Amino acid sequence: MNKKPEVSVVVPAYNVEEYIGQCLKSILKQTFENIEILCIDDGSRDRTVDIIREYMAKDGRIRLLEQEHQYAGAARNAGIDASRGAYLLFWDADDFFEETAVEEMYREIRKEDSDICICNARQYDTRTGTYKMPKYYLNKKYLPSQIPFSAETVPEYIFNITTNVAWNKMYKKEFVEREGLRFETVQRANDQFFVMLSLAKAKKIAATDEMLINYRINNSQSLTGGFSISPLSSFETLMRIQEALKELKVWRKVEQSFVNKALNGMLYSLKIQTRIHGFITLYNKMKTEGFAQLGITGRTPDYFYSEREYIRYKELMESRDGESYLLEQMRKGVMQNMQDDFENSTAYKIIRKMYRAVKKVRKKEWGEKRASTDAKIKSEGKDISAALFGLRSMRRI
């Protein structure tokens, strides 16, 4: 390929033989053709590289770089270094894209010579084959009427307009290099730092409400799946972002936006834990000091943008311990990721038996005096709390 590409599409890939073909097909079908596709294999041990090579033989716009397994952040950085385009896209190898995705974002980012362009996206559920349209990839509740925007024009919402993912954003390469933006080479949440710092530093941010990305969910092969392996990763990244914002002298200006983003992010991190040990580790950290360190503790309710998230935060802080809070959240249908792990445990079976006993007491004594019934339920409840408390000594049940 001799012609210099205008847009470089960086695709980190790790053990995605099931999806990489659909991903590359959707990129090769783009209506905007002046692109290069940089596939960065992150040490795959399946047929990912073979499939990429098959597509390379058909289209010279595809280039393959191979590295030892260093996670998606390192792969994206390698893509930045090898890119030749004036604009950068960071697309995941298990997703697929609308044919006009590059064209639409390229047009919007160039319209006002913006540093970033954000697009909307939908989720594709691998298990059910259905689509979902969440509001948070481009949250119009916080999106200003005046576009392009920046941290100067909407400091109170700059981090709440979109999510901390790189794949629904196009970046001007000159901006990325000038500001020294790099992805973190950690195992999880490796694009969080890059995205939030870029939003804070950009002079102009464009946006399009077109749903251009099909983001695959319920995919066990994703580079970012399984957050219980490193449950504190998101918290630690947010702490580094907070420090960086203070060094940039913009902290006071964007503080409310950051605090709300941090609360949202940490509640989400708790929700997506898949193992009890990971959940308890994160719960204990946040309750004892994490929320305070992120600036969340001590705020009045009206400081927060989501009443529901504030209520969940208060419930967590007022809960006795992580195990009882987890059980209560699962009963509400919030923490479903750990359902199998928890229900297969001996402790769960004991707790379930106790709750059945309480239910039986309620039913049997429904017609008796309320005070007597409440006393028995309260007594049984103490036993349940004691059983839950015993879970704390278990790494994984």
Automatic annotation (TrEMBL):
Per its record, how is this protein called by name?
A: Glycosyltransferase
- According to the entry, every stretch annotated as the Glycosyltransferase 2-like domain falls at 8-177
Task: Provide a Gene Ontology MF annotation, just one.
Answer: hexosyltransferase activity
Q: Which domain of life is it from?
A: Bacteria
Gene3D superfamilies, per this entry?
Answer: Spore Coat Polysaccharide Biosynthesis Protein SpsA, Chain A (3.90.550.10)
Q: Sorted alphabetically, which Pfam families does this protein's record hold? A: Glycos_transf_2 (PF00535)
Q: Read off the PANTHER family from this record.
A: GLYCOSYLTRANSFERASE, UDP-GLCNAC:BETAGAL BETA-1,3-N-ACETYLGLUCOSAMINYLTRANSFERASE-LIKE PROTEIN 1
